[in-house]
Design brief:
Blueprint lengths: L1 H5 L3 E6 L4 H9 L3 E5 L4 H16 L2 E7 L2 E7 L4
Parallel strand pairs: 1-2
Antiparallel strand pairs: 1-4, 3-4
Length: 78
Amino acid sequence: MMCAQRGYPCVITMAEPFSVERRKLMRMLGAKVIVTPKAGKGTGMVAKAAELAEKHGWFLCKFIIDGYRQYFLFLRLD
């Protein structure tokens, strides 16, 4: 919500088992959600977040929500 409030672009990686409602909520708040395969579980989600952060020069930020780690990628603001 902070990104939406401040107008920052936000990319979130989520594993496929995460609820559709949670993905819709993040999209509704303006985030781009990237869904990773179910087989990779949380590890695939983390790897994809790290890959995108390195590839695009984004800032990788980790949050723990409801006992699960959510990985948010913020565009670097220069």
